[in-house]
Amino acid sequence: MSTATDSLHMCVCVAPLYACVYDSREYLRQLCVGQEVVFRVDYTVPAIGREFATVYVRVPATGHQQSVNFAAVSAGWARVRPAAPGSNEAAPELPELLRLQEVATAAGLGLWAPGEGLVRPPSVAAEASQVR
After folding, report:
1. Does residue 15 sit within a domain?
2. How many Cβ atoms from other residues are within 10 Å of residue 42's Cβ?
3. Domain with 88 in it: what CATH number?
């Protein structure tokens, strides 16, 4: 899941230092593995040669497409970075993503839960100390 919407930062893509990375990865795995996935490129940043997209999964029961970006932000497993001032590099859903992030933050969901942040779980810290 390396593609994310414009300013959407999936916790799994941030850094292994975040305690939430494992829960975020598991959330995305359960949502996407074995499902039909669709990517819609929202815009391209030529300076870095990267396309930014919205990711959808088809809901088997209804056949409708569900935005993985909306789902991850709503559940608190992704954070949204506002577009840079004066930039036109943003997905059309940015205002709704920001609103969903506010709701998740207020509810203390996912990476917004008390105690989350730049903390290495003990098992990861032990593994890292053995790497040379």
Report:
1. yes
2. 18
3. 2.40.50.90
